[in-house]
Amino acid sequence: xxxxxxxxxxxxxxxxxxxxxxxxxxxxxxxxxxxxxxxxxxxxxxxxxxxxxxxxxxxxxxxxxxxxxxxxxxxxxxxxxxxxxxxxxxxxxxxxxxxxxxxxxxxxxxxxxxxxxxxxxxxxxxxxxxxxxxxxxxxxxxxxxxxxxxxxxxxxxxxxxxxxxxxxxxxxxxxxxxxxxxxxxxxxxxxxxxxxxxxxxxxxxxxxxxxxxxxxxxxxxxxxxxxxxxxxxxxxxxxxxxxxxxxxxxxxxxxxxxxxxxxxxxxxxxxxxxxxxxxxxxxxxxxxxxxxxxxxxxxxxxxxxxxxxxxxxxxxxxxxxxxxxxxxxxxxxxxxxxxxxxxxxxxxxxxxxxxxxxxxxxxxxxxxxxxxxxxxxxxxxxxxxxxxxxxxxxxxxxxxxxxxxxxxxxxxxxxxxxxxxxxxxxxxxxxxxxxxxxxxxxxxxxxxxxxxxxxxxxxxxxxxxxxxxxxxxxxxxxxxxxxxxxxxxxxxxxxxxxxxxxxxxxxxxxxxxxxxxxxxxxxxxxxxxxxxxxxxxxxxxxxxxxxxxxxxxxxxxxxxxxxxxxxxxxxxxxxxxxxxxxxxxxxxxxxxxxxxxxxxxxxxxxxxxxxxxxxxxxxxxxxxxxxxxxxxxxxxxxxxxxxxxxxxxxx
Length: 651
Fold this sequence. Notes:
- This protein is an alpha+beta fold.
- It is built from 20 helices and 19 strands.
- It has helices at residues 5-24, 33-39, 55-58, 63-75, 86-94, 99-122, 128-139, 169-192, 195-214, 232-247, 251-269, 282-285, 289-302, 314-325, 347-356, 360-368, 370-374, 384-389, 392-397, 617-624; strands at residues 407-410, 415-419, 428-433, 436-437, 449-453, 456-459, 490-492, 500-504, 506-512, 516-522, 533-543, 547-556, 562-568, 573-576, 579-582, 594-597, 603-609, 629-635, 641-650.
- The longest helix is centred in the first third of the chain and has 24 residues, at 99-122.
């Protein structure tokens, strides 16, 4: 049979569209809802971890970890589960404070989780009544989430409308705690009263399942500006699936709940950069790509391996690798945008992710952090602890190490990193970014860069401070550390970069070799039109073992002004025209000065210490101490066309 050219191309196009659609639905596009219903192990048969009365199985669990949870729970055996007054909830509206409320609600869940593990550890019933009190107290809360996540309207003003439940991060987390309490201790609860388990299901259905199935939540898909979902999506979906697997007794409804969660998580995964880069940074990776892994691992466990294929996907592999590609040194990681410079590492989860994608580097990386994680107690991502309890023999024998790649280039995320030596923190580490100013947890920071030496900060990205009412509001860019003039960037004609997807880097060019690594881009599009920038070509270069050089070539309107800014944690001083000394301190506390060379015929220099006086600044002080300095280089006669450069090297 002869096929016409038209039919051939139409068929080929249809096949391409089908394959693309399936690629965009990696989690939900392989099985139908009916398929899933057949694949899921029925609730009555599903035992992801040993039941409470299977003591021989629990003897195989990590006794040292269980002892830590037991000790913590014993310290809090007489804990009085607090009522949270309305006035604490109102603080987010009245003063902008979100921490007072969150400190109470997070601690309640932390103690509940520890008590569940403690009861599992000894199985003597000592913790059952306190656990029941905790469950009852949590079920009587007006909102399982936090006031900072309430709509910012007069209708709410910091208090939950209990007639309109919706699901935020911590409401979903709460369902997970209650679901595991029911799984392990349900029979103990029934000996007290059937109302306990009934209450767990009633509240979870009303607060979690019904809203998720019947109303749209903003975190489920891209917003009106096209920004893809951030970590909220997989973080909530992992808890959604966890709770549905453990609590929903109607098997058809159980499959419906889980299948919709699979569809929602694909809204996160589909548009995610193919390079695996997390624009929220490593500290949010633990709830972004890592929560995607949580989601897949739960699905895989509940279907006897039907979701193994997801781990073979190149994007999913790259999403895992990001965590070690963004590493500076054992303690420091890239902290562009709202990320923290020293995030904690969920060691066992990272190891499991690495094993799932067959990445020995990621496995070694995860195992490297196991001792630090061992002392932690559960708060978020609670179910990770159960996996951890049954992997210790393998985990303790695992090889440890840090990959510390020599060069990293993430072309979709537009982030580069380079170091003097592969596998070593000695010498320079240099990283820079392009991107756009509508990234998740965005700072206006296109063209920004950081420099570390021997694994310690030299020129920094300040990152985020304490979250308050301002942080995710129209006032976000009134907070100084979110603005480009408090990054390693220029201010032109008194104007800084603007937020939004229109403001982005252009003409990126990345090159690397044995002795250097270079990224160049045009920054003009990051600034408002009134800045009068026709072009601003920035070239960022590491000459390995020697220096960092940042060069700018620009074309401006007549009568322009330029001020270049650099951020550091050391009290820089001008030692002579053309040289600024930065008194860098090494790990031993010894001063090893660096010189920052500039053209004194083109620039005048001032150094200012940033006063940390606002509520948002508390978090800055917690991360860096009260030692943030900004070096300002004012161009004396910039002209319509010009160039400038900085060179940073050991004195």
